[in-house]
Design brief:
mainly beta; single chain; globular; 6-stranded antiparallel β-sheet; 10 strands; 6% helix; 191 residues; 1 helix; 32% strand
Length: 191
């Protein structure tokens, strides 16, 4: 009997010591590992992917008989120092065989040097895998991830590429025209 993840699943790496690896996760070799540095989105720890490429971090299995992966999404905070590092989210049928990795989505930080929220809906995955995996590909650059969350897809579309402007003619409350309030108001209107 496998130790399935409980959904929602959140891993912030705070319960692990330096160079450790989360219980139940799989990796190939000694990296990636938990790092204690300034490169943590919340708390003081994150998962560090060094310059070796490719590098994998495989989450524990999801009980796909109860929860199909297509009902889930993976989100995480990602920090890279350069644009060359890419994180590919995929699914594996075996956590010990990289040849079973099926890519679902690819991420690059658009602003190196800061954490960016990345969201990978798994709704287009149709295979039989039950292991969500992160695969880092780099051009000699390191990458950090934090606050990994595997959760149910929301009941509405996930807003993307939101921008704000000073135009208020289409807003119900033009007094809320500054910063995040407008973006949140617009995103909430989609649901």
């Amino acid at each position: 009997d496998e130790n399935y993840l409980t959904i929602p699943y959140v891993q912030d790496f705070e319960n692990y010591s330096y160079h450790a690896f989360p219980t139940g996760w799989t990796r190939f070799g000694s990296e990636p590992y938990v790092s204690t540095s300034d490169f943590a989105y919340s708390g003081t720890k994150s998962l560090y992917f060094a310059i070796t490429s490719p590098m994998y971090a495989v989450l524990p299995p999801v009980n796909t008989d109860e929860t199909p992966l297509s009902d889930l999404m993976l989100s995480f905070q990602m920090f890279s120092t350069y644009l060359e590092s890419k994180m590919i989210i995929g699914v594996m049928t075996s956590p010990t065989d990289v040849n079973t990795f099926t890519p679902v989505d690819t991420f690059e930080n658009t602003a190196p040097g800061v954490f960016e929220l990345q969201i990978a809906p798994l709704n287009n995955y149709t295979g039989t895998g039950k292991y969500v995996a992160l695969k880092m590909i780099t051009n000699e650059q390191s990458l950090y991830i934090d606050d990994v969350t595997l959760d149910y897809m929301p009941g509405c579309a996930i807003p993307s590429d939101l921008t704000s402007s000073n135009e208020t003619e289409n807003l119900k409350n033009p007094k809320k025209e500054k910063g995040k309030e407008v973006v949140v108001q617009m995103a909430n209107a989609l649901c």
